[in-house]
Amino acid sequence: MALATLVLGGLQGCATRPTPTPSSLTAEVAERTGRLLIKVDARPGQAAQTLSASFELSGGVEQGRLRINTPLGTRLAEAQWQPGSVRLITADGEQAFDDLPSLTRAALGEEIPLAALFDWLNGSPWAGAPTEPTAAASDNRQHFAQLGWTVDASRLSADGLLEARRLATTADLPAVLLRVRLDR
Question: In Å, what is the CA distance from 5 to each residue of 45, 81, 109, 138, 147?
């Protein structure tokens, strides 16, 4: 259940795939749906965690809503955010957070770059941080490294697939795999 809240701040997929374009922090997105997989490696004092779920996302970075459902359609959680308010609603009740990174840290002890995910899922690096090419980038600009993550957006157009990996850099910072498959 804790991993379900990790994705509540910014994972998105789309029912109709738009032409990839960078988003702005205030850009709105259409209703989007898809499936996601998040794997967090074990670290001292914490077992490995995995979440596989479907999701529905509407809005954008500044204001939006994300619903996370089991593969059978049961609602696990819903996040709603707008300036000054980030709320997580689960079967256990409602929690308030200062911001989206706080929500991900509380859910998993990890901060996921939610603002960057909006652009990554459009096949582009986020404009808010430096980007480095990766070895795979020599023939495809949709492979890049940003914010400590290696992002492969090369299959978004063909398969609706995004994969982002953060390698473990210390014993307290585990490796994380984020895979999103967008609905057609």
Answer: 20, 13, 11, 36, 21
